[in-house]
């Protein structure tokens, strides 16, 4: 701090040469940062503007107030999408968290072949969501997938037709999404588990705590920051989920598995209603902010108390 | 030194070379050129438009077609980008009421003169012609026609049901489905699970029950017709069809089930005429199945029109303008329409083309004669499921209701009617 101040206040050549010397560093960081910020902010502002115009096939100027918003929120598609988002978001985040944590704890037992297992659990993350969706759409199809396999094995009363069942179809997306991303949660949790100070664990052992008690009272409380990070990352994925659903159910059966991102795409590019699509996109942004702002506040608060 | 003037000569030469095209243009000898975009890149569609391009080149033109593979919407995104950039193609694929909608965002070419000189208007179904002349002027030209409500019958399933009569009315159709079910066919209806697929079941039912009421409700959005007894009966018929379908199909396209259909595990299919081309490409024979117009309660054929078309965008370049005129002449030409439809399995737009020749199939002949009869009886109507009856926004809102109804058996026909009317109200 003091060094920077003194450099700045010192007159003449040395300060300038310092700036020149550090110019490449500034360029490295600030140019891309400014560029992407301008990109993000300008297009967000543009979308917000479009959402208040009567644009249909192409953007036009004009002002319709909140009409696009009321139309979107009154539509059955959006209502179903919103309900689905609540269900999918909470189920997916919670279950992937639990799955990830359990996998991490199991892997943490210094077992043989840990590297291989870790790679296997992490591997789905390397697969594109479109591929995940397509593969699961075959596996879950009752006519050709798991149900048929079990039938062919002899258990003919077995039923697993969630993919074509209106009430259960949203859970197929949860299953596929968990398969894809619980490895991510696992990796973060595993890193957290490994970073717990071995001395604390030893101390707990000396005090006579069993393994379950050590996990519950000593190790897991240190995982809070990681848990919050995983929740936020998974939530923002859940809110913007698009490719997985499009490949797996395409919003069907009927419109039972609509999600906000599908509605935005549908309004903008299939129905040719840019204004309404933009309004739906802004609503999605608001949902994201509702998740991210508390997170930012939490981090700020935490840093303030720790400093 | 004889070559000292090289530079000056070169300059003069290049000026002359540059002036040459302008000179040629002034002479009226401009070579027609056409920039076109469409989604037709592969299969019979790709082959057909490539053949059209060859004909264009044979007439001395330069053919510059850029296909945008995938869904129609992707082609539309490219078109939108080009229009916003101020550089629309000379001609692009577009169909139905979208022609009117898009013609509002960029200037189009008035084709009245070229259409009049070909005497085209007399040989096109009136409802179809209306779509291509929003505001009273021809700005687009239909290229080929499909019916979306053809009835395909599996020969083997008919044998199992011990039936040989092609159903004419919906009552006949329902009887035959019951017979097939009794004959051991678990799913008498072969189906896909896509949105247009569900939409086709509805429009075939509605127009088959009452074409007049279909026209009023779906095409003119008449409030009374939208809540009338005919549309309720149509939803009830859709429920019957849905109960005969394989629920495991999910979101697969109809073509997935073609083999089960031909094998007689599934009996009937309500599908567009294009399925004939798909069946043929998949290696099935014509005597594996029968094709007839979809059921019609007044026994006269009802024709649900789906037509591909080209719209012509205004360009100032003389070579592109010449290309547009040439393209318009080709598209209206009976020989070109014959060539095109024989490749894709559709039928020509012109009602005066003779389909008795060897290049045509029985299915195409039956479709064409159904169109003629339907036009004569005012029973040729525009397809909802394939974006011919309404603009995309309204269509999608209506199909939402229909596809949900097909999949959710707890919705009653009365509820479906109310929801459809609400969806129309909300999307307008």
TrEMBL record, chain A:
Q: What is its main location?
A: membrane
Residues annotated as coiled-coil are none
Asked whether the UniProt record includes Mitochondrion among its keywords, one would answer no
Domain ABC transmembrane type-1, first and last residues per copy: 82-295
Q: Which InterPro entries match?
A: ABC_transporter_permease (IPR051393), MetI-like (IPR000515), MetI-like_sf (IPR035906)
Q: What subcellular locations does the record give?
A: Cell membrane
Instruction: List the source organism.
Output: Bradyrhizobium centrolobii
Question: Key word Membrane present in the record?
Answer: yes
Q: Which GO terms describe its cellular component?
A: plasma membrane
UniProt-recorded name of the protein: ABC transporter permease
Provide the alphabetized UniProt keywords.
Cell membrane, Membrane, Transmembrane, Transmembrane helix, Transport
Q: Return the Pfam families for the record.
A: BPD_transp_1
What residue intervals traverse the membrane?
A: 27-52, 85-108, 120-139, 168-193, 214-239, 277-298
Q: Which family does it belong to?
A: Belongs to the binding-protein-dependent transport system permease family.
Q: How does it sit in the membrane?
A: Multi-pass membrane protein
Record-linked PROSITE patterns: ABC_TM1
GO terms of biological process kind: transmembrane transport
Automatic annotation (TrEMBL), chain B:
Q: What does the sequence similarity comment in the record state about its family?
A: Belongs to the bacterial solute-binding protein 1 family.
* InterPro entries referenced in this protein's UniProt entry, alphabetically: Bact_solute-bd_prot1 (IPR050490), SBP (IPR006059), TAT_signal (IPR006311)
| Residue ranges of the TM segments | none
Supply the PANTHER family for this chain: ARABINOSE-BINDING PROTEIN-RELATED, OSMOPROTECTIVE COMPOUNDS-BINDING PROTEIN GGTB
What span is annotated as the signal peptide, if there is one? 1-24
> Which Pfam families has this protein been placed in?
SBP_bac_8 (PF13416)
Localization recorded for this chain is:
Periplasm
Please tell me one Gene Ontology term that the record gives under cellular component. periplasmic space
Q: What are the alphabetically sorted keywords of the record? A: Periplasm, Signal, Transport
**Organism annotation:** Bradyrhizobium centrolobii
User: Protein name, please?
Assistant: ABC transporter substrate-binding protein
The source's domain of life comes to Bacteria
The principal localisation class reads: periplasm
Output the lineage of the source organism: Bacteria, Pseudomonadati, Pseudomonadota, Alphaproteobacteria, Hyphomicrobiales
């Amino acid at each position: 701090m003091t060094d920077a101040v003194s450099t700045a206040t010192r007159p003449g050549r040395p300060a300038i040469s310092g700036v020149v010397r550090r110019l490449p560093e500034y360029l490295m960081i600030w140019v891309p940062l400014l560029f992407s910020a301008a990109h993000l902010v300008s297009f967000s502002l543009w979308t917000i503007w479009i959402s208040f115009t009567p644009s249909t096939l192409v953007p036009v100027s004009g002002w319709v107030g909140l009409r696009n918003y009321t139309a979107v929120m009154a539509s059955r598609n959006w209502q179903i999408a919103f309900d689905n988002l609540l269900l999918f978001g909470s189920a997916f985040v919670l279950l992937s968290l639990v799955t990830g944590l359990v996998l991490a704890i199991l892997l943490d037992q210094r077992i043989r072949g840990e590297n291989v297992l870790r790679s296997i659990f992490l591997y789905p993350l390397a697969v594109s969501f479109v591929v995940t969706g397509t593969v699961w759409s075959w596996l879950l199809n009752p006519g050709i997938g798991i149900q048929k396999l079990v039938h062919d094995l002899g258990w003919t009363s077995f039923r697993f037709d969630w993919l074509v069942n209106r009430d259960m179809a949203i859970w197929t997306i949860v299953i596929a999404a968990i398969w894809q991303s619980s490895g991510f949660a696992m990796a973060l949790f595993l890193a957290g588990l490994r970073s717990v100070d071995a001395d604390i664990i030893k101390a707990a052992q000396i005090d006579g705590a069993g393994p379950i008690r050590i996990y519950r009272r000593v190790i897991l409380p240190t995982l809070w920051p990681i848990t919050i990070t995983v929740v936020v990352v998974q939530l923002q994925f859940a809110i913007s989920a698009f490719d997985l659903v499009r490949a797996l159910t395409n919003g069907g059966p009927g419109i039972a598995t609509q999600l906000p991102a599908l509605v935005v795409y549908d309004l903008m590019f299939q129905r040719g209603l840019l204004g309404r699509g933009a309004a739906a996109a802004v609503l999605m942004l608001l949902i994201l902010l509702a998740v991210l702002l508390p997170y930012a506040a939490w981090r700020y608060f935490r840093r303030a108390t720790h400093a | 030194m004889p070559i000292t003037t090289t530079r000056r000569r070169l300059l003069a030469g290049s000026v002359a070379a540059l002036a040459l095209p302008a000179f040629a243009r002034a002479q009226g000898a401009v070579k027609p050129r056409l920039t076109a975009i469409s989604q037709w890149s592969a299969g019979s569609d790709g082959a057909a438009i490539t053949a059209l391009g060859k004909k264009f080149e044979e007439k001395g033109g330069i053919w510059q077609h850029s296909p945008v593979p995938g869904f129609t919407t992707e082609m539309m995104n490219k078109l939108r980008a080009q229009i916003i950039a101020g550089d629309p193609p000379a001609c692009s694929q577009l169909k139905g009421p979208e022609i009117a909608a898009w013609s509002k965002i960029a200037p189009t070419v008035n084709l009245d003169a070229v259409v009049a000189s070909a005497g085209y208007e007399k040989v096109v179904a009136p409802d179809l012609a209306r779509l291509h002349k929003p505001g009273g002027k021809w700005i687009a030209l239909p290229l080929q026609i499909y019916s979306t409500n053809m009835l395909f019958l599996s020969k083997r399933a008919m044998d199992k049901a011990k039936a040989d009569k092609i159903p004419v009315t919906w009552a006949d159709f329902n009887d035959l489905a019951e017979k097939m079910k009794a004959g051991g066919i678990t799913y008498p209806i072969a189906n896909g699970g896509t949105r247009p697929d569900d939409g086709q079941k509805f429009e075939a039912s509605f127009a088959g029950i009452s074409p007049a009421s279909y026209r009023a409700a779906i095409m003119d959005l008449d409030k009374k017709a939208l809540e009338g007894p005919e549309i309720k009966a149509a939803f009830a018929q859709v429920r019957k069809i849905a109960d005969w379908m394989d629920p495991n199909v999910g979101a697969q396209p109809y073509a997935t089930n073609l083999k089960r259909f031909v094998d007689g595990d599934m009996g009937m299919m309500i599908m567009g005429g294009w399925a004939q081309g798909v069946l043929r490409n998949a290696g099935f024979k014509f005597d594996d199945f029968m094709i007839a117009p979809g059921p019609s309660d007044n026994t006269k054929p009802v024709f649900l029109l789906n037509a591909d078309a080209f719209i012509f965008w205004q360009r100032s370049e003389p070579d592109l303008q010449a290309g547009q005129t040439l393209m318009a002449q080709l598209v209206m030409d009976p020989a070109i329409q014959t060539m095109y439809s024989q490749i894709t399995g559709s039928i020509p737009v012109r009602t005066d083309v003779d389909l008795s020749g060897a290049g045509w199939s029985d299915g195409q002949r039956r479709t064409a004669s159904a169109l003629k009869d339907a036009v004569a009886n005012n029973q040729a109507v525009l397809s909802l499921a394939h974006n011919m009856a309404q603009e995309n926004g309204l269509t999608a809102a209506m199909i939402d209701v229909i596809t949900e109804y097909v999949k959710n058996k707890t919705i009653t026909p009365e509820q479906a009617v109310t929801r459809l009317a609400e969806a129309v109200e909300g999307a307008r």
